[in-house]
Predict the structure of prephenate dehydratase.
Amino acid sequence: MPATYLSREKFAVTTKIATLGPAGTFSELAARDFAKRYSSSDIVFFPTLRRTIDALEQGADIVVVPIENIVEGIVSPVVDSFVRKPLQIIAEVAIPVRFSVVMNHSQPQRLFAQFVAQGQCSEWLTQHAPDIVTTASNTEALALLLANNEPAAALIPEHLLDSGNIASQSFAKVVHDVTDFAHNVTRFVALQAAQPLALPNHASVYKSAVVIVDDADHPGLLLEHLQAFAVHQVNLLSLVSRPTGQKFGQYHFFIEFEGHLQHSRVQAALSAIKLRNQVIELGSYTYSSSSSSCS
């Protein structure tokens, strides 16, 4: 039975889920959330986003990747992959982002922190951190602290404090929730290889995503696309431009909007856009944070 929408009945076979490693990351939290939809699943970690997405060609049923952070914005490599290969978004989940600082001494001389985590906690680090040592991952930051005999600290995801090995550690000091923004959230999507779109469940609220490919650029093109959505009363949720990599000033547009791709208003809007540009339909998926205007 092939991978399909997560809202449908669970598989009787083991579903292979690929996500960004190593273990202990927010990506693992998201993957485990998606894994609950299946009766049996196996999570496999990959070192980069590209290799994670490419895992669909190597036996993975779905991949779980971050697509947007409320502070840092869109995750460009994921959006760019939608043009590079046929993919389908089948679900999304929002994971709260919280970081803590753990110390082996009350006055650490250095702090280990992953480069992205540093950007999420820049205010606290600017005010309190000693010398910062940049690491490749959050779990590496923690491992370096645990192996260090000199006064040191590590910036780690707060959920790691509840994990088995860490919960038993006796830290000299723990500073909870040093994240710059109290409501910091990363949105993750589950992807599969492109397949025929499942029929909408009329009891569910959907959002959809497309990429408008820059293959017929001319003055006013973006305005024409926006007018198509407006005329057919399709509410846009996000619009991101990504360079084509071919020429300055040429951009693809990643757009999310309310409604299912098979809703009449959505089809009418996209039909108008397809008269001018290629449109890659990325799928329709449920979410609970908004209501749809489409019927």
Observations:
- Residues 15-96+184-193 form a domain with the D-Maltodextrin-Binding Protein; domain 2 fold (CATH 3.40.190.10).
- The first helix runs from residue 26 to 35.
- The chain has nine helices and 15 strands.
